[in-house]
Design a protein that fits this description.
single chain; alpha+beta; 15% strand; binds zinc ion
Length: 347
Amino acid sequence: MVGPPKETDMFTPPRCPNWRCSQHRLPTPRFFSRHGHYLARCRPRPIPRFLCRACRRTFSRQTFRADYRDHRPDLNPLLLRSIASGVGLRQSARNLHLSPRCTELKFRKLARHLRRLNLNLRGNLPAGSSFQLDELETYEACRNTRPLSIPVLIETSSRFVIWAEAATIRPRGRMSPARERAIQRDLKRHGFRRDLSRRGLGRTLRRGADLAGDLERVQLDTDCKSSYPGLAREAFGSKRLIHSTTSSKLPRTIANPLFPINQTEALARDLMGRLRRESWLVSKKRRFLDLALQVFMAYRNYVRRRFNRDKASPAQMLGFVPRRMAEGELLTWRQDWGRDSIHPLAG
Ligand SMILES: [Zn+2]
């Protein structure tokens, strides 16, 4: 009989995973007892089990992992790398020998996990931080009838992507008779398409305000869109806000003050196949685009270097994490207990 592995001694469950249990929210130090271990086909070593003394439910170290209940956890980092590199879901499925449906479900699970991780790992921005905001346009399902606007907010010098989420907008631009007919058909099928871009912008700016706690002055750079000043004052407060605008007619070169946000948007279009122009890839629904944006943010902020010549990632530059992380390190511990979740870099 193989004795219990070393890891059994190392891992201490931080809480009872049963959310109805008293030891879930406020665990006492020795709320559990050891309860043997089990062997999993996808793990080289036995996995320790525990028993909660309060609710008498059993759980294991695996209960706290992000790949809890996955059949092929070994493919998660590969799939993440693939999706974060602009490869579509179907092609990723072919490359990894997974079914398209399995790939889709894995993508959603990974992305929901990364959304929590994105929110858990951030803190207050250091002094001297500043913001840039812009919107990029794309669509869900049909370019002619179902356009979307994505506000993107970054911290300027680190290129940390603070938030991006898609909002529905009304179809606009040149209207051919065929397009008018398509819009009428869409109206019958989905109802009136509301313009929710203001709401999305407000939410995105508030995500920035959440991180601006300690800043005495908030520098925000945008283009000259008329709705930005009001929304920015609402989010950051007019007292400390310094809002500079740049005409979007200026050439988008490195000399343009909005180069950092323009570059981030170009990166997003490159790394998210569904945002590429003239691409077959498309988001069928807005909520899946939002999930893909979370994958992009996680990859941009924690995995990729700020510039190719840098060693550090944007999140590292802001002091949110001690070092650059690999794809697999983003997918270690579950992040669904908010900031009390186990840190993804914990051993
Ligand atoms: Zn319990």
